[in-house]
Design a protein that fits this description.
five-stranded parallel β-sheet, about 110 residues, Oxidized Rhodanese, domain 1, single chain, about 15% strand
Length: about 110
């Protein structure tokens, strides 16, 4: 079974190779401030009503938030719903900006 968190470098590889869907659970104003291209915006509160309609339980999901706590909570929830390949981006978009893409604004 996969760890609940994935490092920014491992997530970047998945994104580059199109081997996972990236779900951004931050609020719309946060996404407007900083985003990773190719992510699906889905505020945390919308996940329970949208997950089963929009995701395949067998696909790899990487959940993103600002610092990694909300995304970890969502990844755990998704795992409990049968999405066994859901992971949280460790350190969130803040770590992504620091380690992978400094053009993504930090806030």
């Amino acid at each position: 079974m996969l760890d609940y968190e994935i490092s920014p470098s491992d997530a970047a590889l998945l994104l580059r190779e199109n081997k996972a869907r990236f779900i951004d659970v931050r609020e719309p104003w946060e996404v407007a401030t900083a985003k990773i291209d190719g992510t699906i915006p889905m505020p945390m509160g919308d996940v329970p009503s949208r997950a089963h309609q929009e995701f395949d339980p067998d696909e790899r999901l990487v959940v993103i938030c600002h610092l990694g706590q909300r995304s970890l909570n969502v990844a755990v929830w998704l795992r409990n719903q049968g999405f066994e390949q859901a992971q949280s981006l460790r350190g969130g978009i803040d770590a992504w900006s620091a380690e992978i893409d400094p053009s993504v604004p930090r806030y």
